[in-house]
Amino acid sequence: IPQSHIRNFSIIAHIDHGKSTLADRIIQHCGAVSDRQMSAQVMDTMDIEKERGITIKAQSVRLNYTKNGEEYILNLIDTPGHVDFSYEVSRSLASSDGALLIVDAAQGVEAQTIANVYIAIENDLELLPVVNKIDLPAADPDRVLGELEEAIGIDATEHNLVSAKTGLGVPELIDAIVERVPAPQGDENAPCKALIYDSWFDNYLGALALVRVFDGSIKKGEMMRVMGTKQDHQVLDLMYPNPIAPIKTKEIRTGEIGIVVLGLKTVDAIQVGDTITTAKNPTAQPVAGFEPAKPFVFAGIYPIETDKFEDLRDALNKLKLNDSSLSFEPESSMALGSGFRTGFLGMLHMEVVKERLEREFDLDLIATAPTVVYRVKKTDGTEVEIQNPSELPEPQKIDTIYEPYVKATILTPQEFVGNLITLLTSRRGIQIKMDYLNETRVLMEYDIPMNEIVMDFYDKLKSTTKGYASFDYEPIGFRPGKLVKLDIRVAGEIVDSLSIIVPEEKARSRGLAFVNQLKELIPRQLFEVAIQASIGNNVIARSNVKSMGKNVTAKCYGGDITRKRKLLEKQKAGKKRMKAIGKVEVPQEAFMAVLKLD
Ligand code: GTP
């Protein structure tokens, strides 16, 4: 099939606007899977994705389609919609020539619709506006198209109206893809230039690279060079991605996407964003304009049983094979022992990783509260980067602390604007823009410290707006902040893994809220436990966990021994998620309490 008959496109949308459902429908219409094989959602393959109904890893499929007797190849690249995974969106878009912009006909344009369109525009993609869910009684396609023109300024005269649920409008949409998405441009006689836009680990085949070939081709058996590492590897196998099982091929040609097997044991050797070229006749320049993933949020992850440290290391290494955005380094905590400081793209990413570690590797873990990265200029003129609040230098050695800011985009029905302004102001937000898209919907832009949104911001935003507002953010660099480290002492000892960095003006109220939460969360022990919040040596808040008095087994003194044993076992099971800090048992919830201080 000639290059002119290849179409590479992504689907972008705000979360839940129907990307995966539409992708399934397109796959089905192209006949790549039978109705029987069409299990709930072919595109979302991971267990957690099915349960949570979200897409985490971008998936690609190659489809055959015949229009007016001519054969076409449609390469469909599904992208995740959640704010944490916008990195996956950008790498998917870098390998596409066009994008379907899906908007829910009842909900209209949301924050991630806008964010994704900007990434698509940066990548010079042909945008096809698609209004989905037109079967819904509340569907209002005209209003939605108006919002697209108003909020983003895109021309929506040519658009498609579809229902991914019923399939209405899907054949017309596929025709529009063939007509409007440009064919790949690329020189088949030039040296090979292929972008690695995804990589993962397969137990049998080793590390796999999903590539888009921009120039030349990749042939089975050939020696290829990974330009970033300057290493040469032989191509053991080539495959086209397919919804049922990959299809083997001898060559991946200009404009195509495919899976390359290089027989590598780790994905480190094939980093996403790197370029593959022919070893004998390498291309002069790698594919440009690709930014690697950067973790924004860090947390400590510790095994509850200290002898599971090596198991945790193995598990993290295995997860990293599939998730190049995950980073981790060993760290030790006085309170928690040996664990890893782990970097995440955002809070959802952190939750997913922790859940996978516990589920797939059967580990019991304690995660500390997430923190952003701070830059500290010291009085001696040097600068350090802090990923863990307990590493903050002593106050007298600090000249300035810089904290990361984000640009937050919020879309909301206008009746919630007042509440949102109150919330954003209390989070130290600075208003940049407020636009009415129409009579009922408002677009707000704020610069806001990232520290204020890794806390419970998203939940607060949803509760303030009855779930109607949507939110997206992008980092905009570091700014100086008046910040201090708040330490927590349990029974007189500083628990390093509970330290947090807070704005000076909020230190007292946060400290008080924190000790009160801890008082509720730390179970009664055999003795009274003092809990204090301090800045340096100044205690700013305190409370006590009362002693529980007699051991519960005392009740059955002289009683039936099996009953006594059962009670003890019950107590032990209840302790599973506890970590002993000194003589005090502290539950996992205590480490997260800091997320709910307002
Ligand atoms: P993420 O992958 O989580 O970003 O979401 P998504 O955009 O892929 O959305 P998904 O396909 O999971 O659809 C979200 C919800 O909308 C599901 O409950 C779908 O069944 C429903 N849905 C999708 N398309 C339609 C449609 O055309 N009509 C109706 N009524 N519901 C739809």
UniProtKB/TrEMBL annotation:
GO terms for molecular function: hydrolase activity; translation elongation factor activity. It catalyses: GTP + H2O = GDP + phosphate + H(+). This is Elongation factor 4. Belongs to the TRAFAC class translation factor GTPase superfamily. Classic translation factor GTPase family. LepA subfamily. It comes from Sulfurovum zhangzhouensis. GTP binds at D16, H17, G18, K19, S20, T21, N132, K133, I134, D135. Keywords: Cell membrane, Elongation factor, GTP-binding, Hydrolase, Membrane, Nucleotide-binding, Protein biosynthesis. CDD domains: EF4_II (cd03699), EF4_III (cd16260), LepA (cd01890), lepA_C (cd03709). Its EC number is 3.6.5.n1.
